[in-house]
Structures are given as structure tokens and as C-alpha cells.
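Troubleshooting log. The previous structure file for this entry was overwritten by mistake, so regenerating from the original sequence record. Sequence copied from the archived sheet and checked twice against the printout by T.R.
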Amino acid sequence: MKIQTKHLTLVAGILLLVGFGAWAAGFPVAQDWALIAASFVAGLPIAKKAISALRYRTFSIDLLVTIAVIGALIIGEYVESSVVAFLFLFGAYLEQRSLERTRTSVRELVEAAPTTARLFRDGKEVEVEVDDITLDDVVIIKAGDSVPVDGTIIEGEGHLQQAAITGEPVPVERSIDDEVFAGTTLENGFLKVRPSKVGDDTTYAKIIELVEDAQDAKAPRQQFLDKFASIYTPAIIVAAIIFGLITQNVELALTFLVIACPGALVIATPVAIVAGIGNGARRGVILKGGDAVERLAKADTVVVDKTGTLTQGAPQVSAVRTLVGSESDLLFAAGSLELASEHPLARAIVAAAEAEDLALSDPEQVEVTRGVGITGLVNGREITVGSARALEGLSVPDSFIDEATAMESQGATVSYVLENGRVLGFVAISDELRPGAAQAMAALHRGGIKRIVMLTGDNPRAAAHIAKIAGIDEFHAQLLPQDKVAHVQKMVDEGANVAMVGDGLNDAPALATANVGIAMGAGTGVSVETADVVLAGNRLDQLAHAQRLAKQTFRLMTQNTVIALATVALLLTGVVFERVGMSIGMLVHEASVLAVILNALRLPRWRPKDIEMIPSTPSASLLVSKRDETVHI
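Regenerated output below.
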């Protein structure tokens, strides 16, 4: 609230007290002048807003109050005019103050952003503005410092508090070659960091941008109420005139006009939305506006990707089997070809080859067939690494397939390696389930989700294994990106309210197709941009919290709407039967505004206890896109 309006509210309140004091002392003239002055002081900003709205052909609630105050002054009801004007202005002041309180999460994010940084330049330590950091600098971070950039540690170690980014309160240990993110705080130790993102490109800056944008986005219900107010106001003015003509009572008509003001109704939705978004921001859940909140609250079906969503997305080679040649030759061929891919499974094969000290060769003429595999030349040899689809039409021993099948049944993903159409062998790759995945799925069911479906490009046996231990209701495997879209679209067409959770480039179309898209924070930039909700901490307990928070926010929106409508209905009934006067009615009206605000203020620190118990581990975080996923096998 502006300082000028604060002062006007204070002055009007003092004048109102002076008027009542003059009444008690028996000075009617002083009483009238004090109350008239209070009416003008409090009514001035209200009338100013009403006139501004009229310039844009909008009939605001302020117009109703302005007409009522002017009418009360004309008929000599100075107590009514002053009390109504003061209560409305004071209610607006309380409303703004309360909205500011719900925005504290975002303000805390902004205020926590470091403004200066220590750099190592020309052999000495210097302090510069954060905006002056370049990608060629070396940033020095000491215990207690906030990290000003996203980057990689080149020297030192320590424990970082990453709650502002991931929502995870437990500090994590970081050392050489580990990534750090702007907005985190070094609790102990010493670090030298080479920046990879600076300024507005950092993870922290993008989180702030997303949350600020989200608070400006209106929910469908809020958009409806805005339209409702533009129709409601002139309708009430006409109704008050008719009511006055019928009753021949101007004061009663003015009272009808004031009491009909739906102030609590107008703020019922936005105050709850802002509070819900603030709650999410505190815990690493970015809700992109009221629309996203409403759609997530209505979700009854959750669709999840497997790799990088249910699993940690950091797979490792667990077995190598050959039909032709040695294991080293197979790893060399597969590892060299996979240098061309940034897919997690490809990185696992490359890492296994490098662990064997194999000098990999850069591949040539690389081609990718989605859902099948990758093909290219390695030292003149045509190598293919892919799924079982790559074996179609080839003769392969049953025992070899049986061994691969057994590994898939235990949750491994098998990548077959071929040379010139001949099978060399396979590489089995295992990816662990995320901590708390099963508990998170159970929490979703408790939160009202009726059906959880896993869609994956992986083989059916690995998918079945993951689905079983994670508590997934059903799964569909060996899907291409377009297949995922088709499955999601079918569910939507059947009437399900679908929330799709994914992390990869190939999940982006399905995220866009679902009623609400949810991206894991460490996913690709495309999936994060496409999604309506982002889990900044890359954790499944945040998924359960987001769903429960959306429902709680929607529940409070509904409660607030009922409070507002019930108050107006009861007061208007009292006015019609001449049981409620203007001052009393306005007092009850403002009490309903305060009740709506206080109800919403329960949200910022709300958290369901059963989700607090879900285990989680800190991980790499939001919006840092490092991979362009080309094949999901």
C-alpha cells in the first residue's frame, strides 16, 4: 500500500474518533464537521480508483462505495458516510498488507540473491558486482557466502545449503568437478568455482522469474470473477435504484448498495493463489500461476516417465555379454559411438569404457532412429547400439536372448551392440529408483489420485520391475515420443484429468498434451518450459507435495468464495427486512474480507505430515539443461 494511502487511512480514523468524541461531549456541530472531513479523507482514494476504472469503461466495486458515501452525505447521514468510507479504505489496506505477507517467499528469494562476489583476478582477490562476472572468471566462495553463479568447482570442498533451490533442508557435500548453483550458501569450507551461467541465466534467477510470472497469471475462477465484477456492479446500482423507488427509502437503498459490495469475493481467489504459490516456492515447487494450480488440483490421473523421473537418471553398466569378440572390443565400439549422444544410457556406456582405460574414437556419419538406436562409423566399422528392435530380422541364440531377458526382469535396460548387421553382444545398464519413489506414489493415491500410469521407451520387463517396486498401477513400454502423446491424449479423451510428469526432451510433447505438465527440475530446458509445474529439487516427494498443495489451495479458494457469497446473501436479506443498517452491514462486510484473508494465510507454511516422512536426497537442480535426448531406449 502506498504511504499516502496509509496516511489517509490513519487521518480518517483519527477524524472518526474525534467525531465520536464530540458526540459524547455534546458538541453536535464539531461532530458533524469531523465526520464530514473523515468521509472526504477516506472517500477520496476510493473515488479516485472508481473514476480511473470508469475511464476504461469498467464498473468497479469502488464505484458502489463512492455512490453510497456521496448519497449518505447528501441526506445528512454523516456517521454512515464516514464509517463506510473508513471501513472500506481500512479493509483495502488490510487486504494489501496481507497479500504482501503471502508474497514473502518470493521477496525472500530476491533478497537472498547475492549482489557482490569475490573473484580471483591477476593473482589476487577482488570484489565486484555480480553483474560484472564473466564466464572466464574464477569465483571465490568462503564459508557463509552465497554462491553468485552456476558453475563447477575447480578447487576446494565444503557443505552447501541448497534449500533455496531444491527445497531440501539438509546441506550437501560438494568438491572438485561438482556443480554448484547461484542462491545456495556455503556453510563451511572454501571453494573456487568456474562459472557456467551468470546473471539472469542462472538457476536462481530463472526460479525467481518463474515464480514472479506465476503470481501474475490468473486462474480461470479469478478471470471469471473479474468479468463477474464488471457485470455485477452496474446490476447492483440498477437494483438499488429499483429498491429505493419501491421502498421510497433513500437510506435503505444506499445501504443495499454498500452491503452488496462483493469485496471478499473479489479477493477470495487471488489471495489463496498467491499464498499457495509462495508455499510451493519455499519447498522447490514452482507452480506457474493460478491456472496451473486449478488444473493440478483437479487431476485424478498421474502419468510418469521412467528414466530420470522415477529413476535417478544416472544409470551404470552392470553387465557386458559378448557373442563375438571380447568385452573390451564391444565396450570400445559401443563407447565410441555413444560419444555422439548425451542420453543418460549413452553416458553410462562411455563411462564404463573409459573406466577400462579404452582410448575411444570419435564416430562419423552418426544417425539416430528414435526408439530403436544409434548408428555410425567407428574406425570404418558400422556400429549400431540399440534396443531389441535393432535385432529384428537377425538370427540370435535363444540362450543369449534369455540372459538379456533375465536381466531386464531385474530392472536393467539392455542395449544391443551390432557391427555391420552382426550382433556382437549386449550391455546391461541399471538405473536405481529414486529415494522415496514408492512412498511418493502412495502419497499421491492418498491425495486423491485414482490411477498412476508409467510410460517408457524401455523394455517391458524392466518397466514391469520398476512399476512393481514403485507401486505403479499400470505401465506401457517400448514407446516412441509420439506413442506417449497418443496414450496421454487417449486418457484425456476418455475424461481423465491427466498430470504428466517427465524430464526429457522426448517428454515435452506429452507434457503439453496433458491437462497439466510437471517437469523434473534437472530435465531439459524444453520440458521445463513446456511444463505448468516444475519440481526444482528434482525429487518425487515434491511431486506429492505439489499435488496436495494444489488441492489445498483450491479448497481454500472454494471456502473463501462460500464465505464471501454467504455474507453478502445474509446481509442483503437483513437489509431487505430492515434488520441491518449501513454501518453494521459494512462492519460485517469488512469482517468477511478479513476472514477470507486469514483463511488464506494458513497456506504459506502448510505441509502435510505424511509427505514430510518421505525420504529424499539432494540432487542437481532446476533449469540446468545439459542434454539433448535423442533416443530413449
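The two ends are 55 Å apart (CA to CA). Archived copy saved in two places this time.
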